[in-house]
Structure formats: structure tokens, C-alpha cells
């Protein structure tokens, strides 16, 4: 029979402490944790790594990967996010000449109002670094046309391009 060890501290000294759901329960003498001898919950690390790989390829959604692995799309999202938080920030390589931004912010802010299509916008561009041009698209304030723009007007994160000249 396998050696029984505490699931919290890994200690080998325990005492029997009743039965729960038909399984013998043990109490660790070192940390006092109650545990049963059952397999660990959750998906194996290999399944989580496969989910991150499939998502990083760019063509699979959280929902599709979740159906493939038999978990929810939210679980896949959490695996991808946890993996991404542990990575170093990306570096801009010299051979990159053009970058396109995504419109995902529409879904993250509020679905009650539309932004972008059909609304007047103010475009400002400038060279922020030698060879790097940036374009910023701003939504006008509510009083647009009545007086000058306030310095605290909201900035709309819409699609744009940063290109090297």
C-alpha cells in the first residue's frame, strides 16, 4: 500500500479522524489538516499546457478548447491568464515594421453604448521617438463644437497602427 502523506505539508504522521463520504479521513499531527486519500482534483498540467498552446496559436477560442478538454471556457481563460502572468513582458524587435491594435476593448468596457463606427472622432499623430510614429484617436466631448476641448476628455482606444518610418 502507498504511504499516506498529508496533502498540505507532506507529513507522514497522522491519526484516523472519522469517515466522510464513505472514505477514511485522517488528521495530520504536524499541521492539523484533515484529508482523505483521494486523487488530486483538476485537470493534469499537460491538459493545461495543451490549452495554452492551442490558444496561443491564435485560431481556437476558450469555448472550443473547453469543449475539447471537457472543461468550461472560463477554466481555459484562467489557465491562459495564469500562464501569461508568469511570462516576461514582450520585447519589440527591430524587424517589426507595423503593429495593428485590436478592438477587444468594446467588449470589456460596456455593451450599452457603441463607439467608433458612425461617431465623429479626433485624430492626433506625432513622432514620439525617432522612427516611431503614433496615432491617437479621441472621442469628442459631449459639448463638441460649442467650446474648445477640455484637457480631461476621454480617450477612446480604437484600432490604430504604430509604424516605423
Keywords:
three-stranded antiparallel sheet; 165 residues; alpha+beta; elongated; four-stranded antiparallel sheet
Question: Can you describe what's shown?
Answer:
Helix 1 packs antiparallel against helix 2, helix 1 packs across helix 3 and helix 2 packs across helix 3. The strands form two sheets. A four-stranded antiparallel beta sheet has the order 4-7-6-5, with no helix packed on it. The chain has a three-stranded antiparallel beta sheet with strand order 1-2-3, with no helix packed on it. The mean pLDDT is 75. The protein is 23% helix and 23% strand. The protein folds into three domains: 40 residues, no CATH class; 41 residues; 67 residues, no CATH class. The chain contains four helices and seven strands, in the order E-E-E-H-H-H-E-H-E-E-E. A hairpin with a 2-residue loop joins strand 1 and strand 2. The chain is an alpha+beta fold.
Level of helix content? 10-25%
Strand percent estimate: 15-25%
Strand order of the largest sheet: 4-7-6-5
Low-confidence stretches: none
- The structure class reads alpha+beta
Amino acid at each position: 500500500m502507498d504511504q499516506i502523506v498529508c496533502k498540505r505539508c507532506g507529513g507522514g504522521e497522522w491519526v484516523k479522524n472519522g469517515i466522510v463520504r464513505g472514505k477514511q479521513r485522517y488528521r495530520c499531527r504536524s499541521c492539523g489538516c484533515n484529508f482523505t486519500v483521494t486523487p488530486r482534483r483538476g485537470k493534469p498540467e499537460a491538459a493545461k499546457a495543451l490549452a495554452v498552446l492551442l490558444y496561443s496559436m491564435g485560431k481556437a477560442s476558450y469555448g472550443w478548447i473547453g469543449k475539447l478538454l471537457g472543461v468550461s471556457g472560463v477554466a481555459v481563460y484562467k489557465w491562459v491568464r495564469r500562464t501569461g502572468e508568469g511570462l516576461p513582458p514582450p520585447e519589440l524587435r527591430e524587424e517589426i515594421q507595423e503593429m495593428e491594435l485590436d478592438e477587444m476593448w468594446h467588449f470589456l468596457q460596456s455593451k450599452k453604448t457603441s463607439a467608433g463606427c458612425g461617431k465623429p472622432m479626433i485624430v492626433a499623430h506625432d513622432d514620439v521617438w525617432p522612427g516611431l510614429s503614433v496615432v491617437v484617436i479621441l472621442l469628442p466631448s459631449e459639448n463638441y463644437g460649442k467650446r474648445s476641448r477640455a484637457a480631461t476628455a476621454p480617450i477612446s482606444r480604437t484600432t490604430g497602427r504604430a509604424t516605423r518610418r
